[in-house]
Amino acid sequence: MQPKKIALFVVVVFVLYVVITDPAKAADYVQIGFEGVSTAAQSVGDFMTWVANGGK
After folding, report:
1. 3-class SS at 45?
2. Taxonomically, which superkingdom (predicted)?
3. How many Cα atoms are found within 13 Å in the side-chain-facing hemisphere of 42?
4. Axis-axis angle for helices 2-21, 23-52 (nearest 10)
5. What b/e string do you get for 3-36 counting C-beta neighbours within 10 Å, with b at 16 or more?
6. Alpha-carbon span 9 to 30, nearest angstrom
7. How far is the C-alpha of 41 from the C-alpha of 18, rounded, in Å?
8. Torsions phi, psi for 17 (to 5 deg)
9. pLDDT tens digits, the chain, 56 residues: what are they?
C-alpha cells in the first residue's frame, strides 16, 4: 500500500508544480484531457447507435 501513496504524492506534487509554474500550459493540458474524454464519449455513442441500428 505504501508505494501507491508515494506515487499519488508524486503525481499531486507534479500537478501543483505545473499549475504554479505555468498556468497556461496547465490549462492546455486540462483542455486536451477534456477533449479526449469528449471524443471517447462521442465514439461510444456512435458505436451504440450503430449497434442499436443492427450494425448497418
Report:
1. helix
2. Bacteria
3. 6
4. 120
5. eeeeeeeeeeeeeeeeeeeeeeebeeeeeeeeee
6. 19
7. 27
8. -60, -45
9. 698 899 999 999 998 998 899 989 889 988 999 999 999 999 999 999 999 998 87
Residue located via cell numbers 484531457: 33
Fill in the amino acid letter for 27: A
pLDDT of residue 36: 96
Q: Which amino acid is at 15?
A: V
CA atoms of 37 and 29, how far apart (whole Å): 12
Residue found under cell 469528449? 38
Instruction: Record the pTM.
Output: 0.60
